[in-house]
From TrEMBL:
Homodimer. GO terms for molecular function: RNA binding; tRNA (cytidine(32)-2'-O)-methyltransferase activity; tRNA (cytidine(32)/uridine(32)-2'-O)-methyltransferase activity. It comes from Arenicella xantha. Its EC number is 2.1.1.200. It catalyses: cytidine(32) in tRNA + S-adenosyl-L-methionine = 2'-O-methylcytidine(32) in tRNA + S-adenosyl-L-homocysteine + H(+); uridine(32) in tRNA + S-adenosyl-L-methionine = 2'-O-methyluridine(32) in tRNA + S-adenosyl-L-homocysteine + H(+). Keywords: Cytoplasm, Methyltransferase, S-adenosyl-L-methionine, Transferase, tRNA processing. InterPro entries: Alpha/beta_knot_MTases (IPR029028), RNA_MeTrfase_TrmJ/LasT (IPR004384), SpoU_MeTrfase (IPR001537), tRNA_m1G_MTases_N (IPR029026). Belongs to the class IV-like SAM-binding methyltransferase superfamily. RNA methyltransferase TrmH family. Catalyzes the formation of 2'O-methylated cytidine (Cm32) or 2'O-methylated uridine (Um32) at position 32 in tRNA. This is tRNA (cytidine/uridine-2'-O-)-methyltransferase TrmJ.
Length: 238
């Protein structure tokens, strides 16, 4: 299960933080490291800070966009220190770990961390279903990125070992991947423009539709039903 948990570092500035994050992951049994547009990688500083986790650096995947990085993931959670303009349901670390480990039994999942200086942008957060915030001193809540990776990786490791002793009462539902959800949004926008429901520059309406679908958490079958409805609408547009 832990092999399905992906740690994604977005636009990391200092290579040493990549190495420290890799070390944090390996101590908690995680191995899937993905880097989105790192400023400086590979780098000796990353290898130095990784200590015995240089194998994770060697196997890390590098992507040009977060869209690519989460395409095959069914659950994506953004780590943020504070609320952003793109509102998402908030989870504490324990609840985030429970959600990730449950979904990871069937498919890849992702936890995303933003760059050291500014954190994740709204364009990054829109790829997530939830956001997780690590409780900290409200007067100084800025947590080093590698420390955040360590904290949340520990919660995932702890939850994984708890779940090993629990027999699930009902099978987990089949969730759509991030790429499939994005195709739904693209299809929805295309149809809404054809029926002239959406006008140019109505980005806020699509953002609210994204919120609606994210809150509803449709499974793969429900997503296919929505796509089928959109396809039928297209066929009947005159």
């Amino acid at each position: 299960m832990l092999k399905n948990v992906r740690i994604i570092l977005v636009r990391t500035f200092h290579p040493g933080n990549i190495g420290s994050a890799a070390r944090s992951m390996k101590t908690m049994g995680l191995s899937d490291l993905c880097l989105v547009n790192p400023r400086d990688f590979p780098a000796q500083e990353a290898e130095k800070m990784a200590a015995g986790a240089t194998d994770l650096l060697a196997s890390a995947t590098i992507k040009d966009s977060l869209t690519e990085a989460v395409a095959d993931c069914t659950v994506v959670i953004a780590s943020t220190a504070r609320p952003r303009g793109y509102d998402l349901p908030e989870l504490d670390p324990e609840a985030a770990a429970e959600m990730l480990t449950s979904a990871a039994q069937q498919s890849p999942v992702a936890l995303i961390f933003g760059p050291e200086r500014m954190g994740l942008h709204n364009d990054d957060i829109r790829h997530a279903k939830y956001r997780v915030t690590i409780p900290a001193n409200p007067e100084y809540s800025s947590l080093n990125m590698a420390a955040a990776v360590q904290t949340l990786s520990y919660e995932i490791y702890k939850r994984h070992h708890t779940e090993q002793s629990i027999t699930p009462e009902t099978p987990a539902k089949s969730l759509p991947t991030s790429a499939e959800v994005e195709m739904l949004f693209e299809h929805t926008e295309q149809v809404l423009r054809k029926i002239q429901f959406l006008r140019p520059h109505q980005g806020e309406t699509m953002q609210r539709i994204r919120h609606l679908v994210t809150r509803a958490e449709p499974d793969a079958l429900e997503l296919n039903i929505l796509r089928g409805i959109l396809t039928a609408m297209e066929k009947n547009i005159k």
